[in-house]
Amino acid sequence: MARPSGISVLLLALAAGGCDNSQAPCTQGCPDISGVYSLEDSVPVGNCPFSPYLLAPSVELQQSSERRKVVLHVIDPTTQVEVPLSGDVYMASTSDMIGSFRIDTRTTRLANRTSEQTVTLDVLATGVVSLRDGHRVLSATLSTTDALSNQACTTTLTVTGQSQ
């Protein structure tokens, strides 16, 4: 397994910072974190027998009309089809932050393109949207874990991106 670089650890901490378990999902007056973000940095960590979910070079965060829920599309590497993942929006926890999100779901799909074996995966996406130099900046992680294996293999993709 690859060791995370210092920047990966920093980005993981930043992305998870707005979505810790002590903070409840937003229920009213939720922040607008929606937008299209061009990914500037993408740092994968981990090597597992399954192909992890991927993000496109530009990702769109969509929000429900009341802004309490967020949808992020990931790419299933076995089919190259976008899969929508839904989660909760959180209020800002610092002054430079607009808001954050957390998506925690379980899915079953093929392990990889060349296999007929299915795998059950826990997918966790967390992210923070902040304002920097007049632009929205997304810092996020996408972790894919084999939910049923004794090995509990995890891959993590850490990304930063700026609004278009």
The shape is globular
Q: How many β-strand runs?
A: 8
CATH architectural label: Beta Barrel
Estimate the helix proportion, in percent. Answer: under 10%
- What percentage of amino acids are in beta strands? over 45%
Question: What is the CA–CA distance across the termini?
Answer: 34 Å
Organism: Melittangium boletus DSM 14713
Protein name: Lipoprotein
Per-chain topology:
Blueprint: H1 6-17, E1 35-45, E2 58-63, E3 69-76, E4 81-91, E5 97-110, E6 118-132, E7 135-146, E8 154-163
Antiparallel strand pairs: 1-2, 1-8, 2-3, 3-4, 4-5, 5-6, 6-7, 7-8
Give a concise summary.
It contains one helix and eight strands. It has one helix at residues 6-17; strands at residues 35-45, 58-63, 69-76, 81-91, 97-110, 118-132, 135-146, 154-163.
